[in-house]
Design a protein that fits this description.
The protein is of the alpha+beta class and 84 residues long. Helix content is 27%, strand content 15%.
Length: 84
Amino acid sequence: MNKKCVICGTSRGIEFAHCRAIGYTMSRKDMNHLGWPGMALCHDHHINQQHTTEWGIKKFMKHYHLQGVPVDEKIAKIYNVNYW
């Protein structure tokens, strides 16, 4: 809610990160995000999460002891993601 990276705490360049792989079979722009787990990450950690191929999302989450928060309407508005 405060738009701070859940890993390093910075408030610069915060992005909404999905906790499950999206995009290969589903378009982020066309999906309903309500109920999907997500988290706030700075750009550097978001890139690390998406492109650390030897880890994958599950290992990334486990390494940093993270757990996603299900998106509700308030979170969707703050991070400008689709919901209906």
